[in-house]
Amino acid sequence: MTFVCFSGRKPRRLARRLSCVLFLSTLVACWIGSPSVARSQTVDLSTRHAIVIVGLPGDEEHHQKFEQLAGVWRHWLVDVAGVQEQNHLLLMSINQDLSTPINAESISSRIAEFNSQLRSNDSLWVFLLGHGSQDDRHGWFHIVGPDLNAAQWAGFFATVNVKEQVFWFTHSASGSFVKPFSLPGRVVISATDDGEVNETRFPQALTDIMQLELNNENKKLRETPLSVLELFLETARRVDQSFEDQQLLPTEHAQLDDNGDGVGTEVGDVTSQSNDSSEATQSVVDGTVANQIQISSPITEAKSQP
């Protein structure tokens, strides 16, 4: 606060000074009380971030396949799921500069740097694409150099504190990743049940759905936005249908866990339980959180027109 004292000397100069002080005080008061300033101090907009990690392909056929799938995922995350390019991290064990190999050390540092930019109101989606295996103690995801097990991968995200967390493990033996990653409110999706180690069809089925969205060929009208639960259910159903069409016994059973108990739920059980509206069931059922996470806006006839 500024005090001005009149002593009778040079009253005009002092009067001018007083006028300036009053004018500046008025400007400061208006700026502090401005609605736009108040809004900028209180609004905390959510931002969706995504990490896609592609492991070792093993051969040229899978090299090309993983590259194609990861490309579709990247476009879908940007064009459909609303992830801006600067908020997307792609780590591939293929087509990388040999001076920066995607091994355990570089993955750890890149993820840590990425996570440091997240705010509590943001969301994080993580995808693993590649090959996995399982022993008596751990599930593994194959990368350049020594592989990382499920517990080590979970450690990279143990301190992440964002409101929306969705993990998609699409590789073989990915069911062993559910328990280490499980937290209340975190959505953990795996292509397989624990102990299933055959190559998975889940990533291709997921990509097919993403491509339909990108091509705007999904003509089903939605009264509500597409949710994570719906995407999981449709992907799992496509996988099941592919085995049935070939008259083969399924070697993978996709799981979803979002109640924090570390136990995944198969597509049939998620469907039946999600239809139960009782408060007691909804408090423990897997799929409740995933059903609340919206991926994109509803598709309407107007939007479907070219």
Task: Describe the protein in words.
The protein has 306 residues and is an alpha/beta fold. The protein contains 12 helices and 9 strands. The strands form 2 sheets. Strands 2-1-3-7-8-9 form a 6-stranded mixed β-sheet, with helices on both faces. Strand 4 (132-134) and strand 5 (139-141) form a beta hairpin. The longest helix has 22 residues, at 11-32. The protein starts with 10 loop residues before the first helix and ends with a helix. 33% of the residues are buried. The model is unreliable at 1-44 and 298-306 (pLDDT under 50).
- Roughly what is the average pLDDT, rounded to an integer? 82
Report the span from N to C terminus: 63 Å
Beta-strand residue percentage: 5-15%
The count of DSSP E runs of length 2 or more, i.e. the number of strands, is: 9
Secondary-structure element string: HHEHEHEEEEHEHEHHEHHHH
- Runs with pLDDT <50, length 5+? 1-44, 298-306
**Rg for CA atoms:** 26 Å
Q: Helix/strand/pairing class, anyone? A: alpha/beta
Quaternary organization? single chain
Number of helices: 12
Strand order of the largest sheet: 2-1-3-7-8-9
Give the overall form.
Answer: globular
Instruction: Give the % helix.
Output: 40-55%
